[in-house]
Design a protein that fits this description.
Elements (H helix, E strand, L loop, with lengths): L2 H25 L14 E4 L2 E4 L4 E7 L2 E6 L5 H10 L7 E3 L2 E5 L5 H38 L5 H34 L2
Antiparallel strand pairs: 1-2, 3-4, 4-6, 5-6
Helix pairs in contact: 1-3, 1-4, 3-4
Length: about 190
């Protein structure tokens, strides 16, 4: 493996970590409802647990309500039960074929808790990125040890990986700050 391949591999994995972090941020609730909030809910569908999005259509009905329209008539009660038993603190109600999931208003205390969750997620993303930096640097050191690269190449490669790491961590910080503003906006 060459230094360029090590750098490319580290960059790819850092982008994956960043995408995973963005996905996790989408699940943290802000003041407005988001159908992605229900991505973690799984429903019993003929003996196997499947994500809610695979058995129903999720839509926004208004500024405070998510609509869940099951694709099969008999799934309504199971979906309602799964949402109620999830750790999201939601209380769905049926209206014919449609299940309405109203979002309770967020208290100031809950907003503060969510900002802590976002900061924690951001810190976990930074740790993952730093671990990838360490792995890349160890890969370059192995090449130098095996006499496949010079020490000057090692220094340049480590500088490049550090710049990449700094860029990714800055992106994580921007995402955390943006999400905190969304959460604290009333």
């Amino acid at each position: 493996m060459s230094i360029a391949e090590i750098h490319k591999n580290a960059e790819h994995k850092m982008h994956q970590s960043l995408e995973s972090f963005k996905s996790n941020l989408g699940k943290v609730r802000t003041g407005r409802p988001n159908p992605a909030l229900l991505d973690t809910v799984h429903v019993d569908y003929y003996g196997s647990m499947v994500p809610l999005s695979q058995v129903a259509n999720l839509t926004l009905l208004d500024a405070r309500t998510i609509g869940v329209a099951p694709w099969e008539k008999g799934m309504g009660a199971k979906i309602e039960k799964a949402i109620r038993e999830s750790d999201l603190g939601l209380n769905p109600s049926s209206q014919g074929d449609l299940i309405r999931v109203p979002m309770p208003p967020m208290t100031e205390e809950r907003r503060r808790e969510l900002t802590k969750v976002v900061k924690n997620e951001g810190e976990n993303a930074k740790i993952a990125i730093r671990n990838l930096r360490r792995d890349a640097n160890e890969g370059v050191k192995r090449l130098v040890k095996d006499k496949e690269a010079s020490e000057d190449d090692e220094r340049r490669a480590q500088d490049d990986v550090q710049k990449l790491t700094d860029r990714m961590i800055l992106e994580v910080d921007h995402l955390v700050a943006s999400k905190e503003q969304d959460i604290l906006a009333v």
